Amino acid sequence: MESPDNRYPSSPDASPKQSSPRKSPTRESMEKNTFIRFLVSNAEAGSVIGKGGSTISDFQSQSGARIQLSRNHEFFPGTSDRIIMVSGTIGETLKAMDLILAKLLTEFYMEDGDADEPRSKLRLIVPNSSCGGILGKGGATIKSFVEESQAGIKISPQDNNYLGLSDRLVTVAGTLDEQMRAIELILTKLGEDHHYAQSYGAPFPYAAAAYNSMNFGPNGAGGKFQNNKEERSTSVTIGVADEHIGFVVGRGGRYLMEINQVSGARIKISDRGDFISGTEDRKVTIMGSQRAVRIAEAMISEKIAASSER
C-alpha cells in the first residue's frame, strides 16, 4: 500500500481511470487548519484505537493530526455507529485519514485471494449549512468531484426525526485512492466555508438529538407531537452518591449548565451533608416538563455510569 507521505501532497500521476489531470494542492492550502468527522462501527473503532491505544497513538505521531473518538455508548443519532474526528492542517488530516482507511480496508474489506482492490463506503458528517458548497449550483461541484476522484459521492437528505440534529451524511464510495482524492476535494472546499470552521467542537455534539431519540423512539414522533400531558410541570428527586456529585456538576458547573441547556429542566442539588434519609446520597431535584425531566435524568445517569467506569 502506498505510504501517505508519497500520496500527499499528491502528484498529477493519477489513476488511469480519472477523466481529468489531478491538480497538486498548493502548500498554502495544505497548511490550513481543518477537521473531519466520520462514522465507524464499534469494531472499526477498536481497530483504530489498538491495544492500549497503541494504533491511534502511532497514527497521530505519523500524521501530526489529532484523532478523537466518541465514547463506546455515544452513537450518531439513528445509528449504532461511533464518530471519529480528525483535526490538524489539511495535510496532516489527509495523512491520518489515509492511515485509518488503509487499516480498515485491510482488516474489514479485503478478502483472501481477491485480486481486485477493495472498495468501501465512508460516511462523513457535514453541517447542513456547508452541504450547499459541496453540491454547487445545479450540482456542478459534486459532479466535478465525482469525475475527478472517480468515487461515488452522495449527500443524504436532512433527517428531521431528531431534534437538535443539523448535520447530514456525505457518503464517499470507492477504492482507497478514490476515497482519498474525494476527501481532499471535499476538505479543500469546506476550507472555503467559514461556517464549517466555526462548527468545530467535540466528536459527539449530539446530546439533545440523542436524548430526544432515546426518549421519544427512533422515528422522533414524540419530539414533534407532544400532548398536553408531556408539557405539564413535574418534579423528581433522585439520589446521587456524594462522591459522584462532582461529575454531575462538572468543573465550574459546566456539565450541570449543559444539562440545563439541553433538557430545559431546572436542577437543584442539596447541600453537603443533606442526604436522603438512611443513605449517603445527596438529593438531586429535577424540575420541568415531563420530557425535560426525563432527558435531564438520563443525562445525569449516563454521567454517573461513565464516572463509575473510570
From TrEMBL:
Single GO MF descriptor: RNA binding
Listed SUPFAM superfamilies: Eukaryotic type KH-domain (KH-domain type I)
Residue ranges that the Swiss-Prot or TrEMBL entry lists as coiled coil: none
Comp. bias intervals (Polar residues): 8-23
Spans traversing the lipid bilayer: none
InterPro entries, per the entry: KH_dom, KH_dom_type_1, KH_dom_type_1_sf
Claim: Acetylation is one of the keywords in the record: no
Region spans: Disordered: 1-31
Pfam families: KH_1 (PF00013)
Keywords per UniProt: Repeat, RNA-binding
The name this protein goes by in its record: K Homology domain-containing protein
Organism field: Actinidia chinensis var. chinensis
